[in-house]
Amino acid sequence: MVPNAAAGLYGPGRKAPRRDQTTRIRAMDLENTLYMDLEHGRVVIKLRPDLAPKHVARIKELTRQGFYDGLAFHRVIEGFMAQGGDPDGNGTGGSGQNIPAEFSREPHVRGTCSMARAASPNSADSQFFICFKDSRFLDGQYTVWGQVTEGMEAVDKIKRGQGRNGEVRDPDKIVKLQVAADAAAA
């Protein structure tokens, strides 16, 4: 049997959304979605402005400037995470603008996107990491700003580093990072 709106598909007393509402909802979703193109495929990241509005705004700003395009995953530790976003490619660089911490109770699970930082909680800049597996020991200490929703298999293929620090020789790079709304408009 095929449900219909008149029979309560949207619940008692609810109507199907108007076309302009549906378009606006899709546009909001695209504005809070990133497409990260890697040599291994596309990664789709759902941004979480509800958790970290300042971080999400800054990441979108840097993304729209093309800041992340061509940057390496300079630190990649097997069974832990892949870290990128450093224009110097060695873990010491950034965009030059620190972002105040926006710690939350959101867990660091497989596919979580979180900001890297130095010892100071307010030292996050442009570097971020994507968790390969659950890393709950990071919870409440790093700002979670997104979650991989598609393409985790491409993240899993990022070249791993050597040793405990995960430094990568000839690292994989972000081919292109873009806000989905911008990609849809192009």
Question: Would you give an account of this structure?
Answer:
This protein is 19% helix and 22% strand. It has 186 residues and is α+β, with helices and mostly antiparallel strands. It has a single domain (18-181), classed as Cyclophilin. Strands 3-4-6-5-7-2-1-8 form an eight-stranded antiparallel β-sheet. Strand 3 (75-77) and strand 4 form a beta hairpin. Keywords: Isomerase, Rotamase. PPIases accelerate the folding of proteins. It catalyzes the cis-trans isomerization of proline imidic peptide bonds in oligopeptides. It catalyses: [protein]-peptidylproline (omega=180) = [protein]-peptidylproline (omega=0). One of its GO terms (molecular function) is peptidyl-prolyl cis-trans isomerase activity.
Question: What's the short version?
Answer:
The protein is 19% helix and 22% strand. By secondary structure, it is α+β, with helices and mostly antiparallel strands.
Question: How many angstroms separate the termini?
Answer: 40 Å
- Tally of alpha and pi helices: 4
**What percent strand?**
15-25%
Q: What proportion of the residues is helical, as a percent range?
A: 10-25%
Number of domains: 1
**Named CATH topology:** Cyclophilin
What is the CATH architecture annotation?
Beta Barrel
Mean pLDDT: 90
Strand order of the largest sheet: 3-4-6-5-7-2-1-8
The major beta sheet can be summarized as: 8 strands, antiparallel
Q: Which residues sit in consecutive blocks of at least 5 with pLDDT less than 50?
A: 1-11
Class from helix and strand fractions: alpha+beta
* Rg: 18 Å
CATH superfamily: Cyclophilin-like
Q: What global shape is seen?
A: globular
Helix-strand string: HEEHEEEEEHEH
CATH class wording? Mainly Beta
Number of strands: 8
